[in-house]
Amino acid sequence: MIIKTTDVQAINSFFRLESLKEVYGIIWMFVPILTLVLGITIGVLVIVWLEREISAGIQQRIGPEYAGPLGILQALADGTKLLFKENLLPSRGDTRLFSIGPSIAVISILLSYSVIPFGYRLILADLSIGVFLWIAISSIAPFGLLMSGYGSNNKYSFLGGLRAAAQSISYEIPLTLCVLSISLLSNSSSTVDIVEAQSKYGFGGWNLWRQPIGFIVFLISSLAECERLPFDLPEAEEELVAGYQTEYSGIKFGLFYVASYLNLLVSSLFVAVLYLGGWNFSISYIFVPDLFEIDKAGRVFGTIIGIFIILAKTYLFLFISITTRWTLPRMRMDQLLNLGWKFLLPIALGNLLLTTSFQLLSL
To answer: How do residues 260-284 score in pLDDT, each as one tens digit?
Structure first.
């Protein structure tokens, strides 16, 4: 059998085309992930700048103003400084646990962003168990804190890690019960379905009005999960010993700093998704492209407006968290655990039973 030269060239060009398509497919698969990571990074930098500006305004201070216009590059300057600082390791500690701890705290929170919808199809993974995947992944973070405290070979750090894990476990149970109530109300655990269920009735269909008790419990529990004042006992600012972070320096300390703001941002996004209607709004915003009969432009316009809407709701909750930091006094450890186990847990259970009863009666 004789194969012509032109046939060989055609076969080679076909295989090259197929290999280019595979490479293109692999690259395109990473584009949404990189876009999400870039957006998260910018969001964290904005939160740090807002917190410093709002805190300075509340305390009648100046705030950051030298690094960039209006001090917007101050967080970037702090991150660069931590990146070039020396990483110190405890001489008798477990260096593997000491190094793995911050990474687990950051990665477990980053994975939670994969189930957050920024639009109808703007989601990394639309799973049928999206909200419970977030709870399952976020429950891994306390292991990182325990590793950090134990690996430091420091009694204060180890006690700080235990205190952080106890706080996280105490408030994760009421938070899970509130999420379960939302799932029952929406007949789905998918974050996209929960948003769509609220959009049927417009502004009045928000779960904020249908689950007011659950919203308050979720708000308090999410603040405690993020270790924000008045629940920042694991790393109290007035203490000379900063809990599980005592022995950390350089970029490892920066990872804990980033993890706290990542957790705050993801909690705020879930507040917007679960209780405030997500990317939807009661007023129609697609009428402008419809006048000109531009369907594709209308979809793009609607998607952009939806992203702005969910971010506006998210940063509204962030503003509440920042102002709470400078208005409420810190709780003692016994008060914090009593609030979680003796008050929020029974209230969340009662709210779940009420939601289940109403759902059964409506069938």
So the answer is: 889 999 999 999 999 988 888 755 4
